[in-house]
């Protein structure tokens, strides 16, 4: 039995907006977040019991961010950091800098600013897993590897309506960022 639904199949499914029912909220870009890598795949539940998979190629993979105070992952397709690092000491020594250090074992070298609109999100369902690309333990910036992280109980996905969604947020359960990587 196939309990999954790819994003391509969902685009062809006229009932997809019916599957994304829930209480809408507003998702602003995180004020301060640690860059974890690039998202390649996110799979989450939908109300009818199936799972929906969103996939990106490495070349078009959106950024994956961690917001410490909310213990949340953000995936923001189409939102890219502005070029150039800032010597913003407050950002580097704040929660995002600490999360980046914990994630990679390396102190952040700069802070980047990303801008994007506030978007409305709805609860989509239980988050099943992500596949992401990161150089978290690489010696150089080019040492990228792919990782798979299955989510535990209580971790939920929220997403912006639309095809493809403009933003994703994953939080809840025991999700946290440790020196070993994502847990929960």
Compact overview of the structure:
It is built from four helices and twelve strands. The N terminus is likely disordered. The protein is mainly beta and 184 residues long.
Helix and strand layout, with pairings?
Elements (H helix, E strand, L loop, with lengths): L3 E3 H6 L3 H4 L5 E3 L6 E12 L5 E5 L7 E5 L4 E5 L12 H5 L1 H10 L14 E16 L10 E6 L4 E5 L8 E5 L3 E3 L2 E3 L1
Parallel strand pairs: 1-4
Antiparallel strand pairs: 2-7, 3-4, 3-5, 3-7, 5-6, 6-10, 7-8, 7-9, 9-10, 11-12
Question: Could you explain how this protein is built, in words?
Answer:
The protein has 184 residues and is mostly beta strands. The chain has one domain (4-177). The chain is built from 4 helices and 12 strands, in the order βααβββββααββββββ. The strands form 2 sheets. A 6-stranded antiparallel barrel has the order 3-5-6-10-9-7. A two-stranded antiparallel sheet has the order 11-12. A hairpin with a 4-residue loop joins strand 5 and strand 6.
Total number of domains: 1
Structural class: mainly beta
The Cα radius of gyration reads 16 Å
Helix content: 10-25%
What's the arrangement of strands in the largest beta sheet?
3-5-6-10-9-7
Proportion of residues in β-strands = 35-45%
Q: The biggest beta sheet, please?
A: 6 strands, antiparallel, barrel
Mean pLDDT: 74
User: How many β-strands, per DSSP?
Assistant: 12
Number of helices: 4
The dominant shape is globular
Tell me the series of helices and strands, N- to C-terminal: EHHEEEEEHHEEEEEE
Unreliable stretches (pLDDT < 50, length at least 5) are 1-28
Termini separation comes to: 27 Å
